[in-house]
Amino acid sequence: MTDQDFLEAVGPWALGAMDAEERAELEAFLAANGARPEIQSAIDRARQAAALLGESLDPVRPGDALWPAILRGLPQRAAPPSAVAARPARSPIPWLIAAAGIAAALLATSRATELQRGLGEAQTQLSSARSELETTQRKVGELATVRTAQVDAERRFGDCTRELEALAKRSPLPPGAISLLDATDLKLVALAPQPGKSGRAVALHSPKLARAVVLSASLEVVAGRSLQLWVIHPGKAPAPAGFLVAHSGLLSGELDPKLFALGKPAAFAVSREPEGGSASPTEVLLVGALGS
Amino acid sequence: MFFLIATLAAEARHARDRRLLERLARGEHDALRLLYEGHGAQVLAVTLRVLRRRAEAEEVVQETFLEAWKRAGEYDPKRAPVHGWLLTIARTRAIDRLRSRETAQRTADAQAAEPSDPGRGGPAPLELVEARQDRQRLQAALATLPAEQRAALDLAYFEGLTHREIAERTATPLGTVKTRILLGMKKLAALLEELPAAETEGTP
Lengths: 292, 204
Fold this sequence. Notes:
Radius of gyration of chain A: 34 Å
Structural class of chain A: alpha+beta
Helix content of chain A: 40-55%
Radius of gyration of chain B: 18 Å
Strand content of chain A: 15-25%
Helix content of chain B: over 70%
Oligomer: heterodimer
Largest sheet of chain A: 9 strands, antiparallel
Number of helices of chain B: 9
Number of helices of chain A: 7
Order of helices and strands of chain B: HHHHHHHHH
Strand order of the largest sheet of chain A: 5-4-8-9-1-2-3-7-6
Distance between the termini of chain B: 23 Å
C-alpha cells in the first residue's frame, strides 16, 4: 500500500466500513508507518470527519439517575457536588420499640389486660410511625432531587453567563478590526492548523479596502518568540506582514496593507518565529486560503 | 460579525473543554460533572441512535464518561477536540455492544426502530445557543450530501456495518457502496475544514 492508497482508504477505515481483509491490509501499513506525523494527522482528520455524523444529531437529555450512576462508578466515590446534604430525619422507631419492650415487660404484672391494650397501642403507633418515616424519607428524597435540579440549573446559568461575559470582554476588538466590520464586502478567512499544530484564527478581509485583520483566541504565546503574519501571493514566497499581539484577551494583528497592492493574495498564514520575526517563515502554525 | 462570534465562541468552548480534561487528569470530580453537563446529551444521542434502547444507551454513556475519567491523562488536544474524542469512545463502545447482540435480534431492532425517546428526548434546555447554531449549520451541510451517500455513511457509522454488509443490506453492488462511502467521507473531510465557520472562505 502506498501513501496515496492509504490517504484514499483512511476515510472508510475511520468510519469502520472496511471488511476484514481490507482492514488488515491498511493496519499492516499503519504498523510500519503509523508513527509518521503526516499519517497520524490523516488518521486524526478522518476520525474527526466521521465524528461529524454523531455531532449532527440533536442532543438527548439523559435521565436524572445517570449522573449519580457515573459518580458511583468512579474508583473513589464522591458525593455529587450539588447533592443536598439532607440531615437524616430523626426516627421515632427506637423510642416506640423501647415503649413496646417496656409494655411487654409489664405484661407479666397483674395489670396484664390494661398493659396488653397499651402494647397494642404502641404497636399501632410503631406501625404508623414507620409509615410516617417512609413518607418523610420519600419527601426528603424528592426535595433533594428538586434542590439538585435547581443547583444544576443555577450552575448552568452561571456557566452561560461567564461564557457570555468572557465574550463581552473580548468585544472591544482592536480599532482596525472594528472599522473593517463596516466593509460591505467583508469576508472571513479561517486559518486552520498545519499537521501537528494546534490553534485556530480567523481573518477579517475586505478586498475592496485592501485590508485584513487576523484574530485568534487559541494560539499559544511563547515567551521569547513572536507570532508573525504572512501574506502569500500566487507563485511567490510568503511576505512578512506584521505580528499578532495580545489585545483585550485576543491576539490580533493587521496585515501590512502595502502587500495588497501587489495583487490578490492566495493565502494568509501565521508562524512562530524568533522574537522580532524572520524574513521567511520557519515554523508555520496556521494557513488560510482565500476563495476565488 | 455573527460568524466571527461563532468562531470565537467555538474556540472558547474548545479551550474550556481542554482545561476540563486537564482537571479530570488531576482527579477532580467536579470537572467530570461539567464535562458530562456539556456533552452528556450529545453522547447519549449517539449511543441511542446506535443501540435504540434507552437503558443500554445510558449504560454506554456511563461507560464513556468513566473511560474519559480513566484516560484523561492520555488525551492529546492536537489529535481531536474533546467532544470528538468523547463521541469516538461512545460510538466505539455502542457498536461493540451492538455487535454482541444476535444478528436476528439486531434486525428485529432495526425494524422496530425508535428514532428517539419522545418522552425525554430533545435538546438540553440550557444548551448554549452557539452550540445549537453550529449543529444546525452542520445538519444543513450534511443535508447537501446525496441521499445514497448519506445512507451508506449512516449505516457504517451508526450500525457498524462494513462495505459488504451494507451492500447486502441495501442490495447494492459492493463497488457502488465503496464509492459512496469514499465520496461521502471526502465530503465530510471537506466539511471539517470549513467548520465551525461554514461561511468562511476555503482553508488549505
